[in-house]
Amino acid sequence: MQRPVVEFWFEFASTYSYLAVMRIEQAADEAGVDVAWRPFLLGPVFLALGWNDSPFNIYPPKGRYMWRDLARLADKYRLPFRMPSRFPRNGLLAARVALVGETETWVAAFARAAMKANFAEDREIGEPGVIRQILQAQGLPAEDIMARAQSEDIKAALRRQTERAAELGLFGAPSFRVGDELFWGNDRLEDALAWARRPPQPAA
């Protein structure tokens, strides 16, 4: 029997995406749900909403709350956390690499390592050398993956994926989709998994 699927839309510069990326694979496995990884870029989505920066930077009180909340939640989930010296970092290259592995078995481990580099190790994930080191540490063919990530096909695919996020009505990350149902935020991960497990509903 085919397992239900949750689409997981995430951004490497997104603070709450960090928490969700680190949690989703185990949580989904325990729930008997498959994960479709959907890296995208929040920048174009924010621009369409009239923001030229993260709302956590535009609204300082919201930003101060977010960083404290993130520290509390990282402690709750027993995840390492260090406030990045620069926020938001450029997640473009990491997203392209994740898109290369979107349907491959290494995407989850790569996403966790890249997120940890950003939000626990304060490393510049926008730098090719950092991403290359992450891939090499996982025993992956780093040069081949980096070359594929910089190809015109992957660049175009990430643009299309980001446009698709806007078309679906996504306005932040992480977001989870089950069919046409949208769940937004790390704290909605369990709700999305539970919804995916619901038995088929009769037509109205």
Structure description:
With 204 residues, the protein is of the alpha+beta class. It has one domain: Glutaredoxin (3-Layer(aba) Sandwich), CATH 3.40.30.10. A four-stranded mixed sheet has the order 2-1-3-4, with helices on both faces. α1 packs antiparallel against α6, α5 crosses α8 and α5 packs across α9. The two termini are 25 Å apart. The model has no long low-confidence stretch (mean pLDDT 93).
Summarize it.
By secondary structure, the chain is an alpha+beta fold. The chain is built from 10 helices and 4 strands, in the order E-H-E-H-H-H-H-H-H-H-H-E-E-H.
Average pLDDT confidence is 93
- Helix percent reads 40-55%
Ranges where pLDDT stays below 50 over 5 or more residues in a row are none
- What is the annotated CATH architecture? 3-Layer(aba) Sandwich
Give the helix tally: 10
